[in-house]
């Protein structure tokens, strides 16, 4: 308390704006209350659009799937939607831009699968700790799930996917990422005492 977290957050937001990004500043408790109230007042869709106004990358080698996911996300209110059909294009996009959300197909029909792209993105620090990475797959085998454990995506979506499922999953994951932002920062610095303290604040 009183160490300048709000000032720092606003300063970082100001820098982001100067670099052409949109910024949404709000307290986590207020955000969760807003979404809860919106469900009760049937304004959930409008509020959700605000939270889903994010920069997003879709990685899939199938053009039909790319179009479907792009339309789902566009309707949900995403600010910027980029696409990539293979590992090379995906890594190039991740190197150039910072994304809030990555939707990545597991089987890309080439040497590099979605899990390998995620691993490279993490090793090269192409994605931040607040980036939501969702692996989309038709695979249900234990080998695929266990193989992904070392570099875990934030969630899996099994095909077929519908619009409501995707929006609901994104809402939950984005809320969790925002709520745990300070915790993840502390863990990244190996300041586990502070990480525990931040967890206590959220309880």
Order of helices and strands: HHHEHEHEHEHEHHH
Uncertain residue ranges = none
Mean pLDDT: 77
Distance between the termini: 16 Å
SS class = alpha/beta
Report on the biggest sheet.
5 strands, parallel
Helix content: 40-55%
Tell me the strand percentage band.
Answer: 5-15%
Overall number of strands:
5
The global form is globular
User: What topology, given as strand order, has the largest sheet?
Assistant: 2-1-3-4-5
- What is the number of helices? 10
CA-based gyration radius: 17 Å
In summary, what is this structure?
55% of the residues lie in helices and 12% in strands.
Could you please describe the fold and organization of this structure?
There is one protein chain. This protein has 203 residues and is of the alpha/beta class. It has 10 helices and 5 strands, in the order H-H-H-E-H-E-H-E-H-E-H-E-H-H-H. The protein has a 5-stranded parallel sheet, sandwiched between helices. Helix 6 links the parallel strand 3 (101-105) and strand 4. The longest helix has 17 residues, at 163-179. The protein is globular.
């Amino acid at each position: 308390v009183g160490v300048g977290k709000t000032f720092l957050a606003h300063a970082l937001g100001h820098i982001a704006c100067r670099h052409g990004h949109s910024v949404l500043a709000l307290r986590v408790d207020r955000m969760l209350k807003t979404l809860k109230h919106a469900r009760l007042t049937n304004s959930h869709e409008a509020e959700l659009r605000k939270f889903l106004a994010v920069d997003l990358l879709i990685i899939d080698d199938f053009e039909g799937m790319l179009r479907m996911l792009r339309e789902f996300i566009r309707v949900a209110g995403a600010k910027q939607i980029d696409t990539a059909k293979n590992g090379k294009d995906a890594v190039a996009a991740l190197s150039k831009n910072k994304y809030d959300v990555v939707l990545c197909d597991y089987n890309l029909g080439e040497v590099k699968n979605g899990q390998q792209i995620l691993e490279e993105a993490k090793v090269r620090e192409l994605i931040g700790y607040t980036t939501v990475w969702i692996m989309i797959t038709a695979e249900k085998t234990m080998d695929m799930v266990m193989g992904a454990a070392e570099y875990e995506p934030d969630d899996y979506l099994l095909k077929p996917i519908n619009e409501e499922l995707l929006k609901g999953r994104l809402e939950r994951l984005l809320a969790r990422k925002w709520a745990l932002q300070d915790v993840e920062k502390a863990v990244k610095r190996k300041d586990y005492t502070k990480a525990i303290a931040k967890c206590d604040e959220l309880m």
